[in-house]
Amino acid sequence: MALLLNRYNEQAKIIENIFGVEARDYCRGREIIELIFARRGKEVFIIRRVLVEAVSNYSVLSCLMAKKGEEFEISEEVLIAAAKNMYRGYDIMKLFLKR
Fold this sequence. Notes:
7 helices; 99 residues; mainly alpha
């Protein structure tokens, strides 16, 4: 992943697609997201599609909230996706309310 970020440093579309995929990755998703933030954190904007994907992975979502929580809107679609998470939906809603 570090090699990809170094090689395609200027291509924001790649980063957006990686965020969408890694948001669902339970094994290394948070680690990859943190690497992206470390390398290009100021350039990262969280789009709705990524946030909808992230509500399925509490670890990634909590990382996104810690890094960029004030910069994105929690839409109705995101809330519905969180409510459908039968394992961590309650915790995700609490995370949203803390914001």
